Amino acid sequence: MSERPSIEPSDSHPGILVASGDWTLAHAPRLLELLEAAPDQAQDIDGRDISRLDSAGAMMLSRYAVKVGLGLATVEVQPQYASLTGTVQSICENPGRKRRKGTGFNEMLARMGYAVEDYTREILALVAFLGLTLKTTLGVILRPARFRLTPTVHHMEQVGLDAVPLVLLLSFMVGAVIAFLGATVLRDFGAEIFVVELVSIAFLREFGVLLTAILLAGRTASAFTAQIGAMQSGEEIDAIRTLGLDPIELLVIPRMVALLVMLPLLTFLAMVSGITGGMVVSLGSLGLTPEMFVTRLHDTISVTHFWVGLSKAPLFAMIIALIGCLEGFQTQGTAQSVGERTTSSVVQTISLVILFDAFAALFFLEMDW
User: Fold this and answer.
1) What is the pTM of this model?
2) Which residue, of 51, 68, 92, is where some domain finishes?
């Protein structure tokens, strides 16, 4: 049966207030009356006679205690209500301070620190994911029957064949632009013929593999993240584990193998297309015939440039596959998280591809290759 809440001075100690009755939401009007009639100060509040207490009553008791110059921590209640009063006291009497936003130097340093910490966690997660993927791949190599050929071929079609027209078009146009700019500059020195070396070396060593990797970073890494992220949101990854299957073996390895096979092939097509674009511009601007262009290319360009460019393709394929799949696994289960992780995968992949390409260029330069 419900008891009307009350709080009155103790008979033996007038400075101590004794709370009793049901301090619950059902008696909220009465609790507000008690709060308004609270004295200015009190020595202590005894709440052991409170028969029922809920969060609303604990909040009103906290406000009452603060008003009389005390706090809820000083109010003694029955043991079963101790955790409730502690939680309410931490929320109502110790609210978290809102961090003041600013544009000063300290705020800039703080934001830089948060960014560095976040990037460090991402790098460590990528290294750990690389180790897990290599371990699983070794297990598949030792047991070839576990390799999933059908999904691998499916991803090879999505990653490679479907991207061929875009790779050819993009490389052809970039090769044409490089040849046009080179011819414009070299004409002042009477060295237009060196446009052949300019276009060929640029695409064989750098632009062929770099443009292809950047294109696949935006096209394929985002697709991998969205696909795995949608599965994570739909709890399909958990279902795969429940069935006793390995998500790395089932989802990551086919995508990684598809990229390792198709990215070098797409790189070769990009090299041929870019050089063809330069040849077309040379034919129109310099008057070089295709035979003269090919002869010059054969006489002056070493096959080393081709192998240097092609050697970077497997590395870029690993970066694209690992980041795309890792960001998908890190999705939190909401549509917003899928979008954020997809954007993050594209940014990280493009950044790392360009970074590793720069390091590779310096390495091959020092090795005189």
Assistant:
1) 0.66
2) 92
